[in-house]
Amino acid sequence: MDNYLPLGNLAPLRSAQKCRDMNEFIQQIEEKYTDTTAFIIKHKKGKDVSYTNISFHQLAEDVRSLASAFMARGYQHKRTAILADNRYEWFLTYLAVLYIGGIVVPLDKGLGYGEFESSVQRSYADNLVYDKKNSAVAVQLKGSEGCKVSDFICIDEEGPGSFGAILQEGRELYRSGEHLLSQITIDPRAMAIILFTSGTTSLAKAVMLCQDGLVTNIYDMDLAEDVRPGDVNMAFLPYHHSFGSMGQLVMLSHGAATAFCDGLKYVQKNLVEYKVSVFVCVPLLIESIYKRVVATARKNGLEKKLNFGKKLSKLLLAVGIDARRKIFKSVIDQLGGNLRLVISGASSIEPETLEGFSTFGIETLNGYGLTEASPVFASENRDNRRSGSIGKAMPSVELRIDSPNEEGIGELIGRGP
Fold first, then answer.
1. CA distances (Å), 152 to each of 33, 128, 135, 206, 383, in order?
2. Tens of pLDDT, residues 310-324
3. pTM
4. Pairing of strands 37-45, 48-55
């Protein structure tokens, strides 16, 4: 191994328990957080807005109910594709398919029809769960000659065969004890997810993931990252992206609540609306938010005050006094008042943004991963931060640099469960 330079692992912040599979994961989070809020659902009817809180117990019940309906429909050994915006029903479908040992195929709603049809065909999808926005695509697929999909389930429709009707059927089955869930055995190393990711080929490539990869990544993030019960997360990254779906699983594992973003132009409004405390996003967005904060200070003639605050907070930190969130209370209030942790990934982030947010008292961390790795390979945490770094290897991962030159530069390679 003389040609390899080994890299260190993140030291755990806390203890954690690794689950065997996603079924054990559902059981674990239900027992740990029971009546705590798992999801916040917004309802809009004209100008009237209301909210429903879904507890961890209700989430677990809904997963088992939908899993019961899917078992009754013979989905256990089939492939279920999902085409929808981020929403509760999306993730409920994802968890229910995994719960019965099926294969879930998350699809990018931004694909043109040709690549969408190709993805459905190449993944050999048997069923499609979709939302109203994608009804036209579903109808076109249903009418195509090469379509092998047997069941089309719309989340927003009503009546027989709709998502709501199937979930209700499952509830009745589960409560009656005729749900067949006790017959399920999960092979954690079997293919459980087919995720399409861009690569060197013209079409997105299909990546096969297993449940053991998911629970290992969840375990590593539980050990290494400071997400807390009662935190509020906003699901901005699309669930069909491995970073987005893993981020959601990590929030559930830590007992954090999740709200849904109304869209790119509403991010700052939603941060305030839900009092978001943890935000997982891509660099471009967090850079945009930071630049907006700086631009607002400049517009209001507060740029000198902002820069003085930065210098003062650093000086106080150097002598062991953390007054960042008091000094920059007005900035933090613009972002909802509770934002304390931002996790960035998917590409490199400007050091100025990382340093700027951390100076405000909002811990901003960088990480690195690949869809094929389920996806997190390396990350920073509160005890391991350095500008321009992707952090250290996750606890279950081994990272090395292949054939480093005199400056230690080479190809990064990794392996893990």
1. 34, 5, 10, 22, 48
2. 899 989 989 999 999
3. 0.94
4. antiparallel
